[in-house]
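Q: Structure tokens for this one, please.
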Amino acid sequence: TARDFSLAEELEEETDMTVRPVKVYLASQKAEAISTDTRTLRVLTHDPKVQWVLIFAYPNRELLLSLDPVGEESLIRSVVSALPQRGYGVPAPHTLFLKELDMSPVDIFYIGSDHPHNGLEYHPTTQNCHEWLLYVLEHDLKVNVDTCYASPAQ
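A: Here is the predicted structure, written as tokens:
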């Protein structure tokens, strides 16, 4: 099908509908992408050399929500995977704290599976992880990316 969503592994959280506090982090594989300057999230996330992901940190588990282009056509697919637990409130390397909110793990799966970019062809400048991320931040997490400044994770 044109729409595509994937679990990196079988996760018990896929059916966990218990709403509870979760810390949301913006993460990058590049340390230099995480800065303490005054760029808004919209500007910060548009560095074409950086791939961004979201980390949802529950007290007992962390879930990663990311974009993964697949196949010869490079179709966009949202992926949810589990991260090794470091302890609640201990941020992963290269992260920025976004917000704490109340949501269930299954809500994260819905965010990934319902993303409108799923199944579209990946393009480096128009259909990419930056556009994918901005949609999640604005529409699903209700973050105003034009006025919000991410804080370095503590």
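A few notes: Helices lie at 41-44, 105-113, 129-140. The beta strands are 5-7, 20-28, 52-57, 62-67, 78-83, 95-103, 151-152.
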